[in-house]
Amino acid sequence: MSEMVGEVVTLVIMAFALGMDAFSVGLGMGMYELRLKKIFNIGITIGLFHVWMPLVGLIAGKFLSEKFGVFATVIGGLLLIVLGAQMIWSTMKKGEEKVISPVGFGLLLFALSVSLDSFSVGLTLGIYGAKTIMVILCFGIVATVQTWAGLLLGRKVQGWLGRYSEALGGAILLAFGIKLLALLW
After folding, report:
1. CA 124 to CA 127: how far, in whole Å?
2. In the chain, what is the straight-line distance between the N-terminal and C-terminal CA atoms, in Å?
């Protein structure tokens, strides 16, 4: 029982880290006048993408795990480290951020862009042998709530917080990648 609780806590923390980009981008988008119905739809769409993308990654990861064993686990850990480092690095870059309109195709593109990292994490978790239902529930629910929080909070605060939240998410993914590799040695 305690092993399952530990896995759920780990998955929620990972989901929180992955949802940071949805939160930070939602924070910026929330500064535009969006109706509550639109905020609700954006959150649901992002949540669904955070279910679908890790599911595809989990399936691919389980396949790789059966074929490549420990080598695949090393690749998964390295993917998390690279992804976390990339998230941290992107917060340090100075430049214009493009804002995608959260309507129609723009909403789908927005949801895909903030959930691509959950594919690689799903790949890693599939290699590691995580429970599929727990992963997609945790990722989907947490991403939805974080998106809503970002959009709603964006109506109230300045955009500087979003940059720091993405760096925090990157640091968490980086730590989990290191932890995964450390378990091998």
Report:
1. 5
2. 26
- Specify the pTM: 0.69
Alpha-carbon span 159 to 162, nearest angstrom: 6
Contact predicate 77/144, CB 8 Å: no
What tens digit of pLDDT does each residue of 21-30 get?
788 777 767 7
Query: Measured between alpha carbons, how far is 30 from 12 in angstroms, rounded to an integer?
Result: 24
Alpha helices by DSSP H, listed for 97-131, are 105-128
Structure tokens at 178: 């290191």
Please say whether the dihedral angle defined by the alpha carbons of residues 132, 12, 77 and 87, taken in this order, is positive or negative. positive
- Could you say which DSSP state residue 158 is in? -
- The distance between the two most distant Cα atoms of the chain, rounded to a whole number of Å, is 51
Alpha-carbon distances, residue 35 vs 109, 135, 158 (angstroms): 20, 30, 19
